[in-house]
From TrEMBL:
Pathway: Amino-acid biosynthesis; L-cysteine biosynthesis; L-cysteine from L-serine: step 1/2. It catalyses: L-serine + acetyl-CoA = O-acetyl-L-serine + CoA. Pfam families: Hexapep. Belongs to the transferase hexapeptide repeat family. Its EC number is 2.3.1.30. GO terms for molecular function: serine O-acetyltransferase activity. The lineage of its organism: Bacteria, Bacillati, Actinomycetota, Actinomycetes, Mycobacteriales. This is Serine acetyltransferase. It comes from Candidatus Mycolicibacterium alkanivorans. It comes from the Bacteria. Keywords: Acyltransferase, Amino-acid biosynthesis, Cysteine biosynthesis, Repeat, Transferase. It is an enzyme of class 2 (transferase).
Length: 194
């Protein structure tokens, strides 16, 4: 995929995921999530060259300062990744993210240990992660799953599931939750409050 076609795909993806998106020029100028993703693509390429790892980290920190979003250049991110609002998003070094994933502000894809190696989550395809959610450790979130707002996930989430609460309780997605545009903050198990 060429750089221009990737930019076009990102802009189209922003219009699909955000009903407030008015046009490509506005999105290019004001969408911090797009800016962070574009910067990540550059730093990720730099990370692959040992001599450029230091400058990649410096550019990552500059991007963090400008956007409020920190994506480690060692992370792996698929196509059509979208960050809505963005402020406070942190994505760790060994995180792997599939295609068509959407995260909201305040999301952390982080680690739970200080050992070298895989210590961050692997996120499948078509996953939505609600505002403030924390997905921690070398766990897997299966395809077509959703993480509710402010959930703290520390165990694997099977495909086509919903994880809500602290610690997150995992259950199958309902037909309503599979509908496009359903707010992940509504993914609440009423039994939790009885």
């Amino acid at each position: 995929m060429t750089v221009l076609s990737a930019l076009r795909e990102d802009l189209h993806n922003a219009r699909i995921h955000d009903p407030a998106a008015r046009g490509n020029l506005e999105n290019v100028l004001v969408y911090s999530g797009l800016h962070a993703i574009w910067s990540f693509r550059l730093t990720h390429r730099m990370w692959g060259k040992p001599a450029l790892r230091g400058p990649a980290r410096v550019l990552t920190q500059l991007t963090r300062f400008l956007t409020g979003i920190e994506i480690h250049p060692g992370a792996t991110i698929g196509r059509r990744f979208f960050i809505d609002h963005g402020m406070g998003v942190v994505i760790g070094e060994t995180t792997e993210i599939g295609d068509d994933v959407m995260v909201y502000h305040g999301v952390t894809l982080g680690g739970r240990s200080l050992h070298q190696g895989k210590r961050h989550p692997t996120i499948g395809n078509r996953v939505t992660i609600g505002a403030g959610a924390k997905v921690l450790g070398p766990l897997q979130v299966g395809d077509d799953s959703a993480i509710g707002a402010n959930a703290v996930v520390t165990h694997h989430v099977p495909a086509d599931s919903v994880a809500t609460g602290i610690p997150a309780i995992v259950g199958p997605r309902t037909a309503k939750q599979r509908e496009r545009g359903v707010d992940p903050t509504t993914y609440v198990d009423p039994a939790m409050y009885i």
